[in-house]
Specification:
This protein has two domains: 1-108, no CATH class; 110-250, no CATH class. Helix content is 70%, strand content 2%. The chain has ten helices and two strands, in the order ααααααααββαα. The chain has helices spanning 14-36, 40-49, 62-68, 70-84, 89-106, 112-133, 139-158, 166-184, 196-216, 222-241, and strands spanning 190-191, 194-195. The chain has a two-stranded antiparallel sheet. Helix 4 (70-84) runs antiparallel to helix 5, helix 7 runs antiparallel to helix 8 and helix 8 packs antiparallel against helix 9 (196-216). It starts with 13 loop residues before the first helix and ends in a 9-residue tail after the last helix.
């Protein structure tokens, strides 16, 4: 779903473009400063305020704009939470750099591969924050958060394709993600700091996205399809067989 925003807010060249890039670079820097002085909620609020254009149209477009900008919001908030989750300066600078790279380089790109990368990054970062920062939340909260992140990522991914069943496919993927979160939430196993739910959803989601992309670009052969599905299955079998289902942390 495309955002319903006027193009004049995104200058493509010249002095206005330079100012636009400078303002984009300023946001991660301000977020870093606010995190350093322990104003994390203000940094998150600043990121949300930067999306003011969502409500700069008639109210009937607000939901559509929110969905279109959902991945950007998830990524921005995730980077800030990752910044605040460590007291090591160079790690905080690392997340600040990635946030700036997202805003300046990846987010403005609209080709199929870039949009796909945006969706994958949004799902991975969003799920990582949910299970790393809020892993001790209620099962209902984990299920709802997983549903929201997977739905927004799927809608963003499908937006670059002429897919007539975008909403249906996005809801199907979100339902699968939420169902998996509900089942695995009773154990909530971790491999180091990575939740098992993230490993499974990332493996399946990235494989399905790659298959969809190759099929849409008419580059999917039967042998390639078998290879990718075999690799995905092998990874899932290893994850499930080697997991400690007694409920302890791996």
């Amino acid at each position: 779903m495309r955002s319903i925003l006027p193009n004049k807010f995104k200058p493509a060249k010249g002095f206005s473009h330079a100012i636009h890039i400078a303002l984009l670079a300023l946001l991660p820097i301000l977020a870093y400063i606010l995190v350093r002085i322990n104003f994390v909620s203000v940094a998150i609020g600043l990121t949300l305020i930067s999306k003011w254009r969502i409500v700069a149209v008639r109210p009937r477009y607000w939901l559509a704009n929110f969905i279109a900008n959902g991945v950007d919001i998830v990524v921005g908030v995730s980077f800030i939470i990752f910044m605040s989750n460590t007291s090591v300066t160079w790690w905080q600078l690392f997340w600040t750099f990635l946030y700036a790279a997202w805003l300046i380089w990846l987010k403005p790109r609209s080709d199929v591969l870039s949009v796909s990368a945006q969706a994958m990054a949004g799902q991975l970062l969003g799920l990582a924050v949910i299970y790393l920062k809020f892993g001790d939340a209620s099962l209902a909260g984990l299920v709802a958060g997983t549903w929201a992140v997977t739905y927004l990522a799927a809608r963003h991914f499908l937006a670059s394709f002429e897919e007539p069943h975008t909403a249906l496919l996005a809801h199907a993927w979100a339902f699968f993600g939420a169902s998996l979160a509900f089942v695995l939430g009773h154990w909530l196993l971790f491999y180091g700091t990575v939740a098992q739910t993230i490993v499974i959803l990332t493996t399946i989601g990235y494989c399905l996205a790659a298959l969809y992309y190759l099929d849409a670009t008419q580059r999917l052969s039967a042998s390639l399809q078998r290879q990718m599905l075999s690799i995905m299955t092998a990874i899932l079998v290893i994850v499930l067989v080697l997991s400690d289902w007694t409920g302890s942390t791996v």
